[in-house]
Amino acid sequence: MTAPPANAEPQKESMGIDPYERNWIRFSIVLLVVFLTAVTVAGFAMGFQVPGEEARVDPATITEAGPFANPGVRQIAPGEFEVYVVSRTFNFDPAEIVVPQGATVTIYVTSQDVQHGFKITDTNVNMQVVPGQVSKLTYTFDRVGEFPYICHEYCGIGHAAMFGRVRVVPPSEFEEAGA
Amino acid sequence: MTISIERPTRELTDAEKRFVGWHMLVAIIALLVGSIFGPMQALQYSNVDLYQYLEPVIRSYYQGLTLHGVLNALVWTTFFIVGFTTLTTIKGLARPLSYPKVNWAGFWVMVVGLVTTAVPILLNQATVLYTFYPPLQASWAFYLGLTLVVVGSWVSGVGFFLTYRDWRRENPATRSPFIAFAGVLNMAMWQIATLGVAVEILTMLLPWSLGLIDATDPELARTYFWFTGHPLVYFWLLPAYISWYGMLPKQAGGKLFSDSLARLAFWLFLIVSVPVGFHHQFVDPGVPTAWKWIHATLTYSVFFPSMLTAFTVIASLEYAGRRRGGTGLVGWIRALPWKDPSVAAQLLAGILFLFGGIGGLTNASYNLNLIIHNTAWVPGHFHLTVATAVTLSFMGITYWLVPYITGKQLVSPRLALVQVWTWFVGMVIFSNAMHVLGLLGAPRRTPLGDAPYVPEEWNGHLLRTSIGGTILLVSVLIYGWIMLRTATGPKADPEDVPGIPIAESLRDPQLTPLWLDRFKPWLIAAGVLIVVAYGPQLWDQITGIQLNAPGWTPW
Q: CB distance A132–B549 less than 8 Å?
């Protein structure tokens, strides 16, 4: 960092990167590549996937025809379920989803009015709910218990009261209930 | 072969100081008013409802939240930034604005827009929060006002560009002075970025609120919004970086460590801060996962210039600390002028930004976003970034800037130090609690004091949020008092008035490669990248538009 002597040759244009900084740049690039690889493998090879493009609907007619006309849980195969949820100010229909432990559940959500959110506590299920669009995620409930699903997008004055819950029950209890 | 160039200096004229001062006045008033509502939200988390005492003027938590977001995140930032970067541009270029009337016109259009936006918010006709997602439908005046604020900032931007163009003609061989270059670049990025929200409002929301069309396509609106929404955070952040790179080293007694990497970082922000918007829509329907993943990748690449910034800024400060006699691994940190409130504010802002950056990387990490999307983690995150890295830095800047433009002395630097530290401590408590709440599943934008689903284990964190918010309220009140007393105090002896701190570069900036000082190739690269990373999906959504979501006002 000493000044060059007055009679020195004029220096050439260059980046003039300090050796430490050069190493820092290498470290930064490696770090970001490692992170990107991790989320990519988790997402596309291990199934920790975000929602994507699913289907479009007309918010004015969803309650009249189509799967959202009868919201609720349906068993589609042994251990496999699908749930259709309608969001509206300020509740979810259904307000309770009961599935047996170990169930793989595909959840479809849409909105009848404004935007809402759908996040099941303690799970990876987190979806923006947008009128005109169907949000979809699949999740396997391995633990018995109650898991609230909470509206996490501001939707109006009653937003804070908008929630429902998933009840995951032991398989024996689920069959007794005659579901 | 390079030519060493004697750089001229020039002080701002009284008229220029007045121009900057008007921006600061609006900005600081917006910050003070908006910040009253923040702690009210934080206290609501502990069931202390102060909103009831504001009725019928302010009718709900959400109306207060709208004011807090619009005034603090949009008005305080935008007015401060236009004022501050006007100062850095003309000071850096050592020449006046080419067409000051253009810049004044920009300012007044922004003010008219601000008033037009404020009226419906105060009348509870625009309780849509600062993201205004349709089909929540605000009064047309809200959308019109926002449009005018953006258009005003564009007009000011044109004033910047013309001034820069003229300077470049007068100085064809000189490297642009860093603080001017960076201010102009930030305005250029802003003009590109705001195209998204401009299209959203002009083609959808404004005609809809006026009754010209019946319904909207909310997913398309979200895509437009986040085209602007993410570079918006860089529009806030880059002026703080201008100070960290180009001014703070001088205040701390050092120099800018690397002029060329500072410029490279800014160019990277210009080209990659826009085509990353889908990382705000990771859990949206209607956007294919492939595009989300591409934007995740690009978001990682916009993290890279912040890593460069971390090194260069810290190296510049270490150089300063060692020049001041600091020794050892951390001794240089202690040797920095922590007693100077402007310096302390920016150092503390930088420390919390390290955590804000790590949290931001989490948000951007594709499927990790499933854990925290729309939870309290997110406001926890951006209170470290925009509300500390940006806001606390801006406060620190005003500690020399307001005295400079008013010709006064800062009232009570000791109290200013108290203000700076209370902001830091309050934000550490508040933000940590919000991050934890988010991980536990607490939603954002929700008066959790009223929510029926709150489990007991959240209560301690809700209380910490309230405590942090209260400390922040004290801090912002002290800030308002210092600003008021400084601006209304007696004129000081000119020798006691601080000047504009400009850090020299360790290396002659003339040695910085020419390609780091030319706008055209970078602007073209920015445009190409946007077309590649946004074009196809945007085209799909526009051609597939379904206007089937009519408006609602459920507040």
A: yes
Q: Does the pLDDT value for residue B162 go beyond 50? A: yes
Out of B283, B300, B308, whose CB is closest to A126?
A: B283
Q: What share of chain A is helix, strand, coil (3-state, %, to 5)?
A: 20, 35, 45
Mark yes or no for CB contact B549/A131 under 8 Å.
Answer: yes
CB–CB contact B2 A10 (8 Å): yes
d(CA B274, CA B230): 7
The residues with which B549 forms a beta bridge, in sequence order, are B216
Q: Is B497 within the bounds of a domain?
A: yes
Give the span between the Cα atoms of B419 and B411, in whole angstroms.
12
Whether pLDDT at A9 is above 80: no
Q: How many domains does chain B have?
A: 1
For residue A175, the distance in angstroms to the closest alpha carbon of chain B comes to: 28
ipTM of model: 0.93
> Whole domain around residue B273: which residue ranges?
14-344+480-550
Say if residue A85 is in the same domain as residue A166: yes
Q: A8 lies in a domain?
A: no
Span B437-469, pLDDT tens digits = 999 999 999 999 999 999 999 999 999 999 999
Please write the tens of the pLDDT for every residue from B68-120.
999 999 999 999 999 999 999 999 999 999 999 999 999 999 999 999 999 99
Rounded to a whole number of angstroms, the distance from the CA of A106 to the nearest CA of chain B is 15
Q: Is residue B260 part of a domain?
A: yes
Active site residues of B: 230, 234, 381-383, 444-445
Confirm whether A129 is domain-assigned: yes
Return the sign of the alpha-carbon dihedral for residues A10, A14, A17, A23. negative
- Examine the domain organization and report whether A84 and A158 are in the same domain: yes
Which residues of A are less than 8 Å from B448 in CB distance?
160
What distance in Å separates the CA atoms of residue B509 and residue A15, rounded to the nearest whole number? 10
Domain count, chain A: 2
- Judged against a pLDDT cut of 90, whether residue A12 lies above it is answered with no
Question: Taking CB atoms and an 8 Å cut-off, how many pairs form between chains A and B?
Answer: 230
